[in-house]
Design goal:
This protein is an alpha/beta fold. Among the domains are: 141 residues, Sandwich (Immunoglobulin-like), CATH 2.60.40; 161 residues, Jelly Rolls (Sandwich). The chain is built from nine helices and 37 strands. The strands form eight sheets. Strands 2-17-20-21-22-23-24-25 form an eight-stranded parallel barrel, surrounded by five helices. Strands 6, 9, 10, 12, 13 and 15 form a six-stranded antiparallel β-sheet that branches. The longest helix is centred in the N-terminal third of the chain and has 18 residues. It is globular, with a radius of gyration of 27 Å. Bound molecules: alpha-L-arabinofuranose. The site of alpha-L-arabinofuranose has 11 residues, from loops.
Amino acid sequence: MKPTLFIALLLAPLAALHAAEPVRIVVDVDQPGHAVPATLYGIFFEEINHAGEGGLYAEMVLNRDFEMTTLPKGAKWAGNLLRTADDWQERKWFGNELWGWQFVADGGARGSIRLDDREPLNDRNPHSLRLTVREPGARAGVANGGFWGMNFVAGRWYDLTFHARTDGAERFDLNVALESANGRDRYASAVVCGVGGAWKEYHVSLQAQAGDRCGRLTLSVNRAGTVWFDVVSLFPRDTFQNRTNGLRPDLAQALADLKPAFVRFPGGAIAGGLNLDNRIQWKNSIGPIAQRKGTMNLWGYWTSSGLGFHEYLQLCEDLGAAALWVCNPGFSDNYRHAEYAPADQVKEFVQEALDAIEYAIGPADSKWGAQRAANGHPAPFPLRYVEIGNEASGKVYGTNYVQFAEAIRAKYPALTLISNQRLKDAPVEIVDDHKYGNPSSFFNAYGQYDYADRNGPKIYVGEYACSRDVGEGNLTAALAEAAFLLGLERNSDVVVMSSYAPLFFHVNDIAWPVNLIGFDNARVVRRSSYHVQRMLASNRPDIVLPTRIEPAATPKDSDLFAFAGLDRKSSEIVLKIVNRFAAPRSVTIHLNGSGPLAKKARMIALHHDDSTAENSLDDPEVIVPRETTFAIPGAEFQHMLPANSLTVLRITQEGRMK
Ligand code: AHR
């Protein structure tokens, strides 16, 4: 038995006592308050924990561009670390310079592979892989096992693209195959004849005849010689919304199910970078994948820039969400010993942001709008927000913010700008607050915004997660976040947006302790925090209704947190209650001044008897919301809340004006 469950059981008699205290939740239905903005629940994407590379981005080849050893300007390798000139150290994620690739030699073949920088594909991809075959044997070539194994599904199609060259007149018939990790089973193969000469792009489609969760891709020849490869890419044909260079459908669907109002991108600290050269540079991430420039990302692994600015904007459109793009503010990440652009060069960073905005929403005949059209999207994308920097602080931030804000407002007055700080000398529309902590800090923060300045900027809680003392993300964390979010809904006259962070984690590379959605190369797990998000977002009322718990208690002493609102379209009272105690609890619900009520109401509840329970890849449905109906006897009724639960009650008022 888990120790916490044991303690909970010991406390059960106490809980029963506690539960015996009569508690009323009173909702003043006849006193509607402020509107709850439709923008309240969004999502935050950052390339961390292999969220994109090896995750949401459906590319199956690891280190497709052979650039994994490329360092940000001024940085050095120091043993197992990358060290910037400002002495920030980051882990080195790869083990050798051809990480992800292996030489394959069957039937007595002899040869080698090495990283080469002669005759590069282009200046953005200066390295390639050179395959030298001395004895061809049965076959000699290279294999790539992807991100912890390639997942082949029987009957599905896979599209392979690669670039190859040879010296002079040498030509190869190249065998490409999808196969098992040891090469014994082959699921699909094809021969590409006459590969060679100057750099050329080749395409092959392969249909897997059998499934394998841990497969690999091979490219091999059966005669002696030398061939170079670059930008070798394998995509499943099935991507989210069938986009080319697209996204993994199961992970993208998890996002779609959240119905986010906005998607923040690219982060996160990554927007700043380890140094200025390492910041996300959106221009490196558009156009054909072979023209893109990857980066050693701030979370210590190589990123191909495949899930780039265009794919991000496309995702927003596909999700029906607004884009919230974060630009670099003219210096790198504060926390990682910021490198500042000299004051007279900040205008170049401002221009970089203006160009990005033009790419997203400028007319199709503008310089960058034309690039967007050339990349297949003549119409503007739904960019609505630009945040200037991430967690950036200090005097320089204030000065740079003004420069960015003035330039952006002058050209794009319809955009909403978000600041990392409240600024004394500059108008700020929305300020971004971040919150990470343990459960008590989240439960206590239920009232955090009750006294926020109503005359100051609106607030975007841009990153939050109950990420301490909660295992890898257990139910306690989810309930603590639920209480905090009810506080945001209540204060949504001033808190207008929120997003949990980080969004994704690959179970084989967890750089951040607690995250929302886990995955491996084939499976996905939605943590209980995810279900809280989804429940609250899909039950967001339009109008706040005054809600109180009697007798009143401070959040610190309270086991119950409640908030209600009105869904105007369906004429429903939406009441949300967190019961953090490890025992069921009966409460009296009083709907003060309501109209006549339908006899049956809906209840959606997320709960588990063990508050330390977690969903996992092997057991993803330990904690999932369940929907039932219950009878409503009148405007006052008793209701039993499950132990450790978030409950949403939807009660229809009959004959009410919509
Ligand atoms: O969400 C993970 C990191 O936490 C973000 O990159 C950064 O903004 C914050 O400190």
